[in-house]
Amino acid sequence: MITISNIREYLYCPEKVNLRLENSEIQTEAMIVGKIFREAYMGFNGIVQKNIWGLNGDFSIKKILNELFKDIPEFLDTIHHRYHEEGIDDRDRVFEILKEDLRFNSWLIALKTQKILRDGRTGSEAVDILFPPCFIDFQIENREVGLVGRIDKIEIIDGVYYPIKIQRSPPPLKGLWESDKIQIAAYSFLIEEEFNKDVPVGFINYVKTGSNKPVPNSSMLNDKFIEVFNEVSSMIYDGNTPEFHMNINKCSSCEFSEICEYCKTEFNEDFSIRK
């Protein structure tokens, strides 16, 4: 089975797919930080929803923010303790940044919550508006095609399914990263096949900016997803590795850089300095 992660990694660098398959037991710092981020963000949504229930229209924006965020530090401390033996160089800094990101997102939710409450609605009604029914961290597969993936979130509004990718890195200055769009296309394909539902649009939730960027489902995007899927299939099953160009910016950020022979050969000392 090809994973959606394989597709995303292929778009980043084809060699990354080989390294992932050959070193499946390796847990790099970037991978561990990614797991921490996902766990924290998923738990954050549940805590915020619970804390919205007791709010009313008389609350100031500052009080709403404090109420939404009040349980988050303790929640993060619990995760911090659970990962205390993992190989992270500056774990405290990782959680500091994560705490700042979640406080920023709490503030954005507080603004929306205050508006809803001042329209005369209750805290429970605010939860229903801000957090529609959804599947969280939902694994889905299509054995006929040979594709499997874990979707961060699927929101269901009036019977329509909306896949959402939660992204901790910021978006580009203009538009969206192609890998993000193709990942949404892969999500949409799996949802349509599994639930027999048309998916009109998906979203990239960029946590650092608090923005939800829409990715309309189009035949052009779907064709690109199929093209990339076939290239990954050819690489994994037939050994047809495509030509690719080294990129010091990508390589210096890659979790496999220390074991990648291309990095060692191509960049040598210059790469070590950049790191």
Summary of the model, kept short:
This protein is of the alpha/beta class. It contains 12 helices and 6 strands. The protein is globular and about 65 Å long.
Task: Give keywords.
Lambda Exonuclease, Chain A, 12 helices, alpha/beta, 275 residues, 6-stranded mixed beta sheet
Structure description:
- By secondary structure, the protein is of the alpha/beta class.
- It folds into three domains: 2-12 and 132-238, Lambda Exonuclease, Chain A (Alpha-Beta Complex); 29-130, no CATH class; 245-275, no CATH class.
- It is 56% helix and 15% strand.
- It is built from twelve helices and six strands.
- It has helices at residues 4-12, 14-22, 29-52, 61-69, 72-82, 91-118, 123-130, 178-195, 219-238, 248-253, 261-266, 268-274; strands at residues 2-3, 134-142, 147-157, 160-167, 201-206, 211-216.
- Strands 1, 2, 3, 4, 5 and 6 form a six-stranded mixed sheet that branches.
- Strand 3 (147-157) and strand 4 form a beta hairpin.
- Helix 1 runs antiparallel to helix 8 (178-195).
Give the SSE map.
Elements: E1 2-3, H1 4-12, H2 14-22, H3 29-52, H4 61-69, H5 72-82, H6 91-118, H7 123-130, E2 134-142, E3 147-157, E4 160-167, H8 178-195, E5 201-206, E6 211-216, H9 219-238, H10 248-253, H11 261-266, H12 268-274
Parallel strand pairs: 1-3, 4-5
Antiparallel strand pairs: 2-3, 3-4, 5-6
